[in-house]
Protein 1
Amino acid sequence: MSFITKVILVTGGNKGIGYAIVRNLALSYASLSSSQPLTILLTARNPALGQNSADKLHEELKPKNVLTDDGGIVDLKFLSLDITDEQSIKDVKKVIEKDYGGLDVLINNAAIAFKGNAFDVNVVRTTFATNFYGTLNLINHFYPLIRPNGRIVNVSSSAGGLHIVNKALGQEFSKEDLDMDGLIELMKRFEDAVEKDTYKQEGWPRQAYGVSKLGVTTMTRILARRADKEGNNIKVFSCCPGWVKTDMAGERAPLTPDQGAKIPVLLALDENIVIQNPNGSFLKDKNSEL
Ligand SMILES: NC(=O)c1ccc[n+]([C@@H]2O[C@H](COP(=O)([O-])OP(=O)(O)OC[C@H]3O[C@@H](n4cnc5c(N)ncnc54)[C@H](OP(=O)(O)O)[C@@H]3O)[C@@H](O)[C@H]2O)c1
């Protein structure tokens, strides 16, 4: 069986930046000269919210004639996917294998952030379970599905920059030979330090979300090194969408979700951005205000 459709999967696509990524992927892809059909898999953990968002997008995009229903080359489908649920990941993997034979781009957008000042080991564990371990587990399952020349785009954050930890920890996170086990060990060290309340002395910040995103940005570099070694031409990038008005960031944020979607969409589709930036790079828009 041959599969001619290019396939892009977006996690957390039911709202916020994820929703805008799906919409802008459809619009940008349709404006390219490629005539190869594209399937976008909008995924969400809540089936009702996910299906509603897919239906809303079908309506919104109707006048643009980019979706297959309207004579375009982009097929938009909803799949239920909770990145913290092993069975849900396995179910989606089966669908992709059977219906599409592989994936061309995986956009890891889903994440959580506690509101306000909440901080203890449970906040850290819950945040890590989605943002770090959920993303990593999904990548581990889906990496074998990514076709040669494919891409993984991790929506991280400037809030997870190396500046949030002390110099010694920063050096550990940036070591050229850090592997995934070493990174997991660092993330566990933070959890332990928060539990023992020694995190300040050890050079960690009072931030579960920031450290989870430092983990995502670091994971990206490790995966890029792995892909380079394997020689499959898979590119892995992380990015910051900027400070974007969404349920996560609130009303004060200056950017729209469409503006936040700009870098992730470029990383998914643009040929030049991949040539200009080494594998494993972290990208942010210079106007992102983060
Ligand atoms: N907004 C900003 O200013 C900003 C800045 C820097 C980075 N980011 C990053 O940008 C990405 C999108 O954020 P956003 O602002 O659009 O946030 P948002 O509006 O809160 O949307 C988050 C999305 O992730 C989904 N999600 C959460 N846990 C999930 C799980 N276990 N499985 C599957 N989906 C899950 C949510 O689903 P539900 O609707 O079911 O909760 C929702 O669709 C995140 O990675 C965030 O860290 C945002």
Protein 2
Amino acid sequence: METSAAQHLLADVNAKQPDLIQHFVQVVQAGDLSHAYLFSGSAGDGKLAVAKVTTMALFCLHPTKEGFPCGACNECLRIANDEHPDVLVIEPDGQSIKIEQVRALKREFSKSAVEGNQKVFIIDAADTMTVGAANSLLKVIEEPLATVTAFLLTTNYHHILPTIRSRTQLVEFPQIKQEALQRYLAEHNLSKTEIKLALQITKSTTELDQLIADQWLSKMKQQIEGWFTWISKDDVRAFPFVQTNLMPLIGDRFSQNVTVTMMCLIFQDVFNVKFRERTPEQLAFGDIYDLLKSTANQLSDYQIVSMINDILATAQLQRVNVGFQGILEVLTLKCLQSITSK
Ligand SMILES: [Zn+2]
């Protein structure tokens, strides 16, 4: 069964900010929610998820005994899908949040005063508000309505106008712990080895989200292992493999960087197996331990280091914007050369 956006959000907050979300659902249950919060922390630490799940808790038709939203009722689903008429999420329009966006929000909320409906607005990247937008917003939060709650989210606390800071309750988001990241990835159905690989590539949850979208990491891991298999056999089929198997998975600059990183990691594994006697559990590509070991035995330390150097040089070429397929093909040829020259 496909998980809904609402269930995704619940899994996200429980993995990333379990203490904070517990606090907020209790506050909602007690009817103590403030008029305006300022969520401050690093990118991808679950600020938006905490704001949305807290909002779900506020509207949910069947909350749990502890105050958590059910994640299945019509209110929960509409909030999670950004389709709830009383919940507004504002994001930068281009580089900034503009005064027109805040004006539209104000019109929406002046209705609240008349209708008496509970309303919530969430402003993501609040630090990108133009001064005009920020001043316009200030008027809203200066005259709080009992039925309105605002969540302002920022990764740049110091870029928020002091007048806004002083009228909001600051919530500093803690750094996500390694175990929490592991739990988060496990909830997205990554295997143990995939989790280890993912965390060697990045610790940023925004980037981790990119890695796991559409099972990209699982697919790429398999292809990199395939590429390495041809290389280790000194088989020229490694060369066309770049075009047929790697390139279809590579799009933006991020996926290019990760591809090069994964190639580095696989040769680092070879190095670590040979010189540091690492076990499969300690490697990024532990699933192919036997192949790594046989390759390590077959290569000299000079060959291994020279392949890692070639890959690192690729990372530099990438910066000057040479076609990426060409880069990977040259790199593949170099690796094949290194393995042939015994
Ligand atoms: Zn619900």
